[in-house]
Every structure is written in C-alpha cells, then in structure tokens.
Structures
1.
Amino acid sequence: MCLSIPARVLAIEKEEMARVSVRGVETLVSLQLVENVKPDDYVLVHTGYALQRLSEEEAMESLKVLKELDDAMDDLEDIPE
Amino acid sequence: MKAMEVFDAFRDRRTVENLAGEIRKISKKSIVLMEVCGGHTMAIQKYGLPALLPETVTLKSGPGCPVCVTSQSYINRAIAYCRLDDVILTTYGDLIRVPGSSSSLEKERARGRDVRIVYSSLDALQIAKEHPDKKVVFLGVGFETTAPTTAATIIRADADKISNFFVYSAHKVMPPVMGKLVDEGVKINGYIAPGHVSTITGSGIYKDIAGKYGLGCVVSGFEPVDILNSVLMLVKQFEAGEPKVEIEYTRAVLPEGNKKAQQLLYEVFEHRDDWWRGLDVIPKSGLGIRDKYASFDAEKKIEVEVEETKENPGCICGEILKGLKNPRQCKLFARGCDPSNPVGACMVSHEGACHAYYRYSSHG
C-alpha cells in the first residue's frame, strides 16, 4: 500500500504537475507535496504524487559504507585456512 | 554510475550475502524484530531473507498493511455507498476483494454497481469532474504515506469548487499501534520501521518507542540490501544494549520528514480514535476530515444503512497482525482461505502476511 517507486523527472508541466519516467514508462505526477523539484531529479512516486526527492548522494554514501563490508569480507577470504 | 543504477545497487546479491555474513558474525543473543510495514513483509518473503539469517534472529510481521487492519464495518459501509444509484465508488485495487459481512466490492461490481479502481485519488477527482450528476466517493485508505495525497486532492477539489467528490477516510497513523503492541505484551526487541511513512513523517515519531519502551527503531528501505542492513543495525544496537532511532533509508528519509506534506496532511485531517483489526480501538490512531472540509466527508454527507458486522470465527487475522501467530498457525491457511478465495483481509492484500506467505513459500 505504501509502495512507492523511483521516477526521473522529465519536465515540469502546468498546475504543479510533472512528466516523469518510471524505467522508460512515462506518466504524469503531482508535485503538490514537494518543493524545488527540477528536471533530471529522481522522485519517489506514490499514488500519483511525488513524495520526496531521492538523494543520489545519500545512496552513494550508503553504498560506500557497504563496500567497506565487501572489502572486509575479501580480507577474510584471503586468510589461509 | 547512472542514478538508476545507484538505486538498483540496493538489490546487489553480493552485498546481500556480505550483510547476512556480518549479521551471523555479530548476533549472539536471540532477537525478535518486527517489520511493521506490509511492504517489508512482502520484500522479506519475496527475497527469501529469513533463510539467510542466523537462528538468533527472528522476523515477525506487524500491523502495517492498511487493507488488513481496516474494519469490516468500513467495508460494509463502502458496499452500502456503492449500492446507491447516484454513487460512483472509487478505490485502490487492494480493497475490492476484502469480504464484508455478505458481499465485497468486487461482487457488487459484478452485479452492475459502479465500482472503479483508481491508481490515484486525482483520478477519482477527475471522474467527479466528468460526472457532475453523480456523487463520486473515494475510499481513503492508507497510513501517513498515502494520507497527504488524499489531503492534497481534497484541497485541489476545494480550489476547483467540485461539490460531488467525497472521501470516506480510513486513514491511520503508525506510532500509536507500535506502542499498543508492546503494551499488549507482544515480545519483540526492535522495530524495522516503515520507510515511506517516515519519508513523510521523519524519524522523530519513533522517539517514544525507543525511549519509553527501550526498543530500537531503524527506518528501512524496501530492497533486500536495505532490509538486511536494517537488521544488522538493530542487531548491533541490541548487542550493545543501546536502543535508538536510526535511519537506514537515508536516500528517501530525512530526520524531519517532508514538512510540506505534513502541513497539507494536518490542514485537512485531524487525529481521532480508530478501530484496528485485532486491536480494537486505539486512541488518536485514525485520521478524520476536519470540519473545515466537511463538505468532502462522505461519512457526514451521505447517509446509508450499513449491514451488521459478521466476522468468520475461524480467521485469526487479528492475532497475525499483532505478531502473536504466523499465518501457518491458522487452520484456514491454504485450507479454505487462499488468494483466490480469501476469508480474511490478510489473505487479500498483496502485502498481507497471509498472502505473502502463501505466494512465496511452500504450504503443503
């Protein structure tokens, strides 16, 4: 029910609407609940409304931390039996 | 890396394996975590995550499927609305098959009533504009994620001076039920907190759960990496004896949430006591339409006679929603209750625990 999906903003339209692309499928969503959204931003879409701008920077940061785990695992695997 | 690839990296198999390995390494004490949100229940079952976790970690499904916790009296009233000749009933698809006392919206539609599935409340408003001679009733179901969208549509209807659009609200808020479960004696050690609810509300709403009840709350995204990372964060908190509120889903959740959405939500709605399946009435857990917008409130503007509530005594949806039992402990599960012939709401909704268990695991 709270399912929300990432969509890329293609263009801002009139009446606080935006044309977005969800993995290549284009649709219109309302921007009534968000501020300062611009083309090429990623937004989280739920029941026809953008709920929030998705932060690519934060996603990269999370992945960086997880990558450290990967390196740690590699080190573990390198230890001879 | 393109942006979409960045977001997709949260499904990476190797990262999932690494996280599972890390959890196995760190987890010493037995810990029970509840995923509150139905979307998490679905993802956990779909990706088979329980099989990756050590014996010390148990995941329990909670009451965060809005369709599942909606009362039968709500469904009965929705059915009564759709039986009126001048009403077009609009709803999200999840609700249409939930059994009322003697019918469902799907059955009513088959009998010729005008019941339409919409993807957005804005679609319902559009139908109202196209049918000025009809009353268009929209079933407003969902938590803090969905309630602001309904609020925004009501504000739009008000601005456009639409007088034949009505909302029947079953909108609810999350924190009261999370406290109530612990008060009722449900034994858990932490919450995997709902991601998209928190996108709107921020993580501050869980402060009391961590402070008053001593339970960790980690706001999680919906990809397998997100969920395992949240489990890891909760296990670390638990092992250290330091329950607190943390955000794993940082790409979509700010500590303060979405202020504009919160403002619209409370412009239109106010808290009221509300009934939850299995949990009865929980104070201040529902969202009713404020008097200022009463002209859009179906409950106040459209009178109907509603059938008496008649639950199936064999159905244990209530106990499943409280995390006291799992779907396999229900004697109806896969024996008289399945997704094509659901007895209770938990088998209807895709994110209901019974539906998710039925769909993604063996049930001989």
2.
Amino acid sequence: MTEQAVVSDTRESETKARIAELKYAIYLMRQNPLVLAGSLLVIFFLFLALTATLFVSPDSAVQLDFSRSYCWSGSSFSWTSLEAVCPTGSFLPLGTDGYGRSVLSMIVLAIPLDLSIAFIIVSIATAFGVLVGSVAGWVGGKFDEAMLRITDIFFAFPGLVLALVFAALFGRTIETLTIAVLLVWWPTYVRLVRGQVLVEKEKTYVEALRALGVHPPRIVLFHVIPNSIYPIIVQMSLDIGGVILTFSALMFLGFSPSPALPELGNLASDGIGHVFTAPWLIVFPGLTILVIALAFNLVGDGLRDILDPRLRR
Amino acid sequence: MEVKDEVLLETRDLTVNFHTYRGEVKALDHVQLQLYPHEVLALVGESGCGKSVTALTILGLLPQNAHILEGQVIFKGQDLLKMTSEQMRDVRAEGIAAIFQDPMTFLNPVLKVGVQLKEAFLVQKHLWSAETRSKSATTAGDAEIRGFLLEKESEKEASRHESGREREKIAEELSKDILKLVRLPDPERILSQFPHELSGGMRQRCMIAMALARRPSIIVADEITTALDVTVQAQILTLLKELRDTIDASSILITHDLSIAAETADRIAVMYAGHVVEVATTIELFRNPYHPYTQLLLKCIPDVRNPVTHLESISGSVPDLIDPPTGCRFHPRCPFAMEVCTTTKPVLKDIGNGHMVHCHLY
Amino acid sequence: MPDDILVVKDLKTWFPIKAGILQKTVGHVRAVDGVDLEVKKGETFGLVGESGSGKTTLGKSILRLIKPTSGEAFFDGINVTKVTKKELMQLRRRMQIIFQDPYASLDPRQTVGSTLVEPMRLHKLVSTKSEAMRRAKELLLRVGLNEEHLFRFPHEFSGGQRQRIAVARALAVDPDFIVLDEPTSFLDVSVQAQVLDLLKKLQKELDLTYVFISHNLSVVQYMSDRVGVMYLGKLVEDAERNVLYKYPEHPYSYFLMAAIPVPDPEFKKVPKLLTGDVPSPVNIPPGCRFNPRCPYSTDKCRSGDMPFYPGSGGSLHRVACHYNVDFETGTGFLRPQVN
C-alpha cells in the first residue's frame, strides 16, 4: 500500500469517527432544546463579535452629542414619566446614553471587546493550568503540595475582592484589569487539570504505556492531557460567561479606564445613576450580559453531556 | 418431567427493543420461558444474549429507553407487563426478589446492614396487617426458625396496631433469623456493620438474606458469583442449593458460566443474541445438547478433569443487535447452517422430556 | 539453572498504610511477602490464587511496574530490581505485559495504528513511517485482525478484539517474556477460547515465555506447564501442572481444586468447602498463613517459619506445609525436616 493510500485511509476513518461523534451530538441537542438555544445564541454572539464594525462604525463611540443624552425614542412605549424624548428622525431603538450615543450601537461595539477579553483570560488561565496542573498531578510531592496551598490561598478571597484589590493597586488599564480577572480564574484550572491527571494516572492504559517504556513527559503530553481535555473544555465554556460577569462587574463598580469606553458593565454603570430617568441604560446592557452568560452556560452544560464519556450512549 | 406442574412464572413472546442514538437494539426476540415451582432454572448465555434484559423485564426494572414491543409475563395469573409501577413495586416487595452481581453497589453504603435488612421486613404490608394470614411459616428454614416465626405471626394477629418501635424489634429478630438462614455467623454483629466492613462473600449473603426476607416465590439471581473468589463462590452456590430444598421458592439463576449451571440448576435455558435456543433439564442438556450453539459452547469450556491441548472456539463474534442476522440469529456462525436458516426464524420443537430446541435441523 | 529466563529471589512488595493527620505509616499491606521462583525459557508458569494472594502484584513487581520493597528478580541474568532507568528502558522491550481489562488498557483517543507504532518508534525498531505501518499491519494480521482496523479507535472493537490489539501491542517491541494478568477474565467463554489459542500459537511461533496469572483454575490448567499457588503473598505450592491438579498436597490447593465448578452435572463432587472468607494481607497470622482456615492445622502450624518441603510429584514439586495430609481420610503425618 502506498503512503498516500495509507494516509487517505486514515483520513477516511477519522472522518467516519468524527461523523459518528457529530451524529451523537445532534441527537443530544434534539433531546435538550435549551442547549440548542444556547448554542444558537453563542453562534450569534460570536458572529456579532466578528462583524460588529460592519454594522456600527467605531467612530460612533467618540461622536458625542449632548443634545440627545439620556433620551428614549418614545415610539413603542414609555418607561417613566420623567424620561426625555429623543429628537425625531433618529434611529435609536434602545435610547441613548449620557453621551448621546445610541445604546444599541454601544452594545454592539461592546460585544467584541467583552468577548475577546473573556477568551483571552480563559485561554491564558487554561494554558497555565494545563502546564502547572499536569506537573503537579503527575509528579506530586512537594510541588503538588505547594500548588495546593497557593491555590487555596487564592480561593480564600472572594473573586471580585481580589480583582478589585489588584486593580486598585496597579491602575486601571484594560491590561491591568484583564490581569486582575485572570488572577481570580487561574487556580480553578490548575486544580481541574491536576485532578484529571491524578485520575488518568491510575488508569490501566497509562500503566501499559509505562510498561512499554514510554517516558513520563510523553505520556502526560500525548496521552493524559488529550484524555483530560473534556472537562477542561466544559469549564472553559462555562467560564466565558463568568469572566464577562466579573469583568463587567469591575467596570460597573467604577474601575473602568475611561467612562466612555463601550463596555457592557461600563454602560450599565452609567445607568445606575439614572435609574428613574433612563432605565433603559441599565436594562439593556444588563440584559445583554445576562443573555451572553446564560448562552455560554447552556452550551457548557450541553458540551458536558456530549463529551463526558461516562454519560455516553 | 412428564407431569407438567403448574407454571409459576411464564414469559410469552417477550420482545424488547432499546432506543439508542445509533438505532434500535433488538435485545429480546420472542423469548419464551417457563419457571416451575421448587426449581432452579439457569439462564445461560454470553454477553449480549439478553439474559439480564429478561430478568429486568420480569422485575419491571427496565431503563427508560426500553420498549416492550410485545409479550407477556404471567405471574399468579396476571400479566406483570400491564401493571403500574406501584403494583410492580408490591410484586417486587413480596413476590419476586432480586439479587445482583455487585453487592457493593446494591447495598446502600451509608446505612448499616441491619437497617437495610429490617427495611426489607418493614415494607411487607402483609406482615403487619392482622387480617392477612401471611404465608405460613413453612417458608422458613430450620424448624426452630419456623417455630419462632409462627409464634410471631400469632402475636401479630393478636395485636392489630403495632407501634413503630415494636415493629422495629420484631423486624430485628426476624433479621437475625434470616442471617442465620444464610449461614452468617454472629448475626448481631453483622447487623451493626456497614457494607464496606464486610467481605464480598458476606455481602452477597446479606443480599440473599434481604431477598429471602420478602418470602418471595421467585428469586432472580443475576450473576451473583461473578465477582467472588472461587472458594467463596462454592460456598454461595452450596447455600443456594440448600435453600432450594428448604424454602418454597424457585430461582432464576443468570450466569455466563455453564459449569455453575451444571452444579446448581435443575433446568437450563440457553440464550443467544436475544433468543432462547434450547431448554432442557441440566443432565439432559449436558448429555444431549441439540442446538449447535450449545454443542459448541460446551466444547469451549476447559474442563479440569480432562485437560486438552486445543480448545474449540466458535468462529465469528456475537452479532450487533441493531442489525441482527435475518432468520436464525446464529446462522452466520453455525457450522450446520442451511438455506432456510438465513430466511426464517426457527420454531420451537419439543424433543420430549421437557427438552426444547429452536433450530431448523430438527 | 542455566535455562531459567526468570529467577525471583525472596521478592517482597509491601504497601505502606498511612493514617492520621500527619500521614504516618501505621502498617503495611504485605502484598508479596517473600517469593522464590524460577521460570524456564519457553515455558508457561501459571500463577493462581484468590484476591489478596498477591499474584498480580508479583507479576507487576517482576516487571518493576510496581517497585518491590526488597528481594530481587533476574531476567536473563540481569537484575531487574537494581538496573538504572536507562537499562530498564531496554529491559522493557524484552519483558511485556497484557492486562486484564481490555476496555481500559488502550488509550481511547489513539487509533490502533498509532498505538502499535508508538512503541516501535520509541525503541527504534523502525525508521520510516511506511515501515512502521507495514509492521503494524503484519502484527494485526498475526493476531487475527485486519488491515483496516489500523485506523479505528478502541471503542469500535469488542472486548476480545481489544485484547488482540493489546497482544499485538506487546508483540510490537519483539519481547521474549510476557506477563499475562488475567487476560481472559473479562471475555465471554467462546472469545476466551479464541484468545487462549492465539496466545498458545504465538508462544510456539515466537518462542515466548509466559507467566500466566489467573483465578480461573481451568484456564490456568489449559495454558500452563507448571503452576504455582499463592496465598496471602507467598507461594504455598508449586509443581508441574498435572501433578498439582491431580495430586495437590497443600490443603489450600486441595480446597481450591475442589471448589472449581465442573461442566458436568452428573459429576459427584466431594463436598469440601473452605470456611470463612479470603483474608486481607494486612494482618498476617503467625506461622503458616493458612492456619486459621485450615481444618488440619496443629500447634506446630501456628508459629515458626514455613520452609518449602519437597512434594511427591517429582523434583519440581514443592509444598509449604509441615504435614503430608491424606485428604480423603483427614489423617496425615509430619514431613521430614528440611534445612
């Protein structure tokens, strides 16, 4: 058999395997409509994050028009009696914020920012967790003990407090705030990966690999970690929602680098001072955070069902 | 076995499918079984043959994705498959008891053995109601236990309303007696222990005790010795044989090991891929196996008394029940397969002496 | 002896039991507690025993998969217990193992082909990818599988097929010696027959030496040339297969043989049942380990060392029992003292 034929056979079988996995995933989706809804929403938000600038020009974040600040279009319904009405002719379905910018446009611009920060934080936390956690789990001993204690210390602090302290100490740029939230999340991944490695370490196939003379680093990298990846993926998708919440909360509490930054928490923060005069300013950004977090949570749950080998078939 | 005793339990045309994402698993296909009083019927077969599924169907414990397409399970004149889950629970509490393979997962690990055993007594409504004259104490073993239970029965008849505490005490006494019945030494101590504090053999005896506590007419034992060491297995099998003689209950013994069936069972039903292929008394089955699968299976087993240099095996492998072979499900592996075997399902043939085969050869 | 490929000397593998907040060692599980044995090249040595006997731990200690606590194991003259990590790696090529659970011994995310090629590459037995694939294909055919199975994942196979893959993997490094740890206990009877025959065939073709561990006495009898019975971490009897099965001399061996179910309902079995349960290797009784359950034990059995006495079944037969018991009558006499 030629090399090409061998390679193409592999691809064919792999494709068959992947198709079988997909069929199972679809079957589970049909069983659980909420997960399906969550997945569609996530796809929608991801799409929006990638194409936001096509719909809304980034300049609209800096085009301030104080003549129409905190106004509501008034066409469909009215929130309170105290609200201002926007000048006619302008397309402002969700009202405006304090700078006169369309709340809808600001939300659309905020989504890529929030999502990309969330993805960055989760990715770095995962990478770090895999690196440190796998060593701790496999080697054990003093390194493992040290890691357990360190992560314990981090867990002892309520997440938000930790982030706040860091932000307060190191200033308020997007970078420092990202690091602040990262500090809250990394220990979870170290523990998670460590736990998985501990479990896999005892399994027979690992013993078989040792019996074949395979070196431990290779066993961990090419066998243990790929087999541990499922719970990590689940955790990652669940955390996207959580990270967005934490990050927005920081902004909401006033740690934003700039008051005009189009970020969901920041927008809501502006709204808190105007609850009775412009309630849409807190409702819509807040709802967006809620829906994104919910969507990722549902997807995470669904992924857990699909990927957990114990619940399979 | 010319005289047909009244059948205790019968399954007729039992057909069960399982819904899975890959398709419908046709697990049971017109399974026909009869269980007579005072006997041990062994249900023997390899993995996927449907013996456990049959047991679960009789017990009403099938998982959600199972569909009973047709068939009946007749017990005491009623079709168990038509019962509600409450009615089935009552049947399981007092008519048909089950013992499973792994006592560690079957027993609640956080409750003491005594609590669980007493519960088996406390749930039996008929024990506590003064009206019902429960099954007479002849269902117990030793004469002493029999006498004791008779005593208790009359006591109970006297007082209509037992207080909770009195019931507990009576249940405790009954528990100790039943532990003696399964030959566990020091029942008092065992009652106060947790399942993990006991050894595998002792746990299995506790399970048997819990099953017997219900004074069942039928005991379904699913691979109860598979997880046990061979010396302990020998003890449990001997116990089962003893109990068959002293207790008025029949057993369905499910096992993949024909040697165990040879030792313990009165009759054997051989199953393959969801079908019953042959039923006969134990001696008859080993002397004259008719079905090709039975014959081949017997040749596969290494016999300690006759060491051989080469074991026969059955070519091929157990079929995928999502797409089982047409006609007789064994035909792809059968050395005697004929044209008709690939198209039509074989019909039951009665060879005489209670020996029945599902095969076109006869 | 010169043609012994494996020599085990007083091997002990103890596992510490830790308790308390400070995790102090309060005792040991003496899984293997002093075993001596020799295995000749090309033969199959069967190791039987129940749970707690230490047979699996012994098998893994010989391979140094579990680190022995003391004692030595010599493979082809090389002291396995004392070699360096690098030398161990080379030994791993020559000494392999097949595990009990075919559903757990293969990496679920690796294709069969990759599973077979990895050890070949590691031990530098092949140099190009095509050579590796070719060899992998040959291995699969040798164990009765097909070329197309190279590209499938373990979960697509049945238990029997997975065991065959495990055998192919062990053969991939061209070993001389294989420990078979209950290789068929998870398999159906008909599949078991196929796998056992395959193992026998391969042994002849490739001149392999096996240590066959099992609690299934019928299977051990079918596979082995010599058999050793283990109880609570020690060998209590070891002899040529026919000798042990027909004329066991240690009471435990006798009860073990008597407990085997026989596929013949008309066979009148002598009702010889062992009382009590299989003990755990944490609290080992003094003297002969079997004495608490032995119906023939005397005071002599309850203290002191237990040496190996020669048995009546030839020069290879040895028994760890002070008495020569006639099991039919229950009488016995003291064996002559050995040094």
